[in-house]
Amino acid sequence: MEPNELLALQGLAHSPQRHARKLKGFTVEHVRPELGAAFSYDWTSDLHFCAYHDIVLEDGGIRAGDGSEDNRRDLRHTLTYVPRGARVTGWSELQRRNNSFTAIYFDPAAIREELGTRFAERVDEKVYYRSDEVAAYLRQWASLLRRGHSDALYEEALGLITILAIHKATMPTWRQPPPLGRAPLALIDEFIEENLGSDLSLSSLAELAGLSRFHFSRAFKAATGETPYQHVLRRRMERARLLLAAREMPIDEIASRLGFQNSAYFQRTFKSWVGMSVKEFRDRM
């Protein structure tokens, strides 16, 4: 996905803070304009687009597709959905507060293949609507993007679930895939053990099982009771206990060997998972 496929805000005096994450089939971004900013937009995308708003306007208006202009001002907790090929135009004058929006852009063809079903050919635009489920997922994305680091396995799964939540009202019923058998599970476990220090992706695990990312996630949980992300994290924490108890490596090296981007992230995860800090755990050994 090229940058010009993302929503462009025109007329800003200063560039907004933008944090974006590009993964297979979709891109997610969190955008925070400066206090009291004013801007306009006139945009048509080849991608589907859904944004969660934490915005209050002094004034403004939006028009999506053939709809009439909407001039609501308190946009907090609302969503705007624009399918590919639809034009969206508007202008905004923001109140002087911390306004932001979080948007996901995705390729319908790629996601249709992942989900093993077909999207409706035509979906109407929706401006400032509400969905607790979609909003919750996009708030999770906002938090991840602001922190600046996460786990690719978790991000891929979260992206697919977000897109499914956006579209599930238009999707036909699909069947739950059967659980994975012992042979593919053993292969996946061996791969995970050999690559605990890598940034494991949902794509790489799904490929071993010969399934799409979406169906692999469902089949894996049906077989193990854990999501792939939970399973990998548990294996990393089990290995962390052994390495910490051996007292042969500094914490920074253990974090790196287990695929964590930095020691602080590893220590937060360890405390959340084990219930005590790394230092407390070592002191008890």
Structural summary, described in words:
It holds the Pfam family HTH_18. Keywords: DNA-binding, Transcription, Transcription regulation. One of its GO terms (molecular function) is sequence-specific DNA binding. This protein is an alpha+beta fold. It has two domains: 3-170, Jelly Rolls, CATH 2.60.120.10; 175-285, Homeodomain-like (Arc Repressor Mutant, subunit A), CATH 1.10.10. Helix content is 41%, strand content 21%. The chain has ten helices and nine strands. The chain has helices at 108-115, 132-147, 152-167, 182-194, 202-209, 213-224, 228-246, 251-257, 263-274, 278-284; strands at residues 17-23, 26-32, 38-44, 48-54, 57-64, 78-82, 87-94, 100-106, 126-129. The strands form two sheets. Strands 1-2-8-4-6-9 form a six-stranded antiparallel β-sheet. A three-stranded antiparallel β-sheet has the order 3-7-5, with no helix packed on it. Helix 2 (132-147) packs antiparallel against helix 3, helix 5 packs across helix 6 (213-224) and helix 8 (251-257) packs across helix 9 (263-274). The radius of gyration is 21 Å and the shape is globular. The termini are far apart.
In short:
The chain is α+β, with helices and mostly antiparallel strands and 285 residues long.
Can you tag this structure with a few keywords?
285 residues, sequence-specific DNA binding, Homeodomain-like_sf, three-stranded antiparallel sheet, alpha+beta, AraC family transcriptional regulator, 2 domains, Arc Repressor Mutant, subunit A, Jelly Rolls
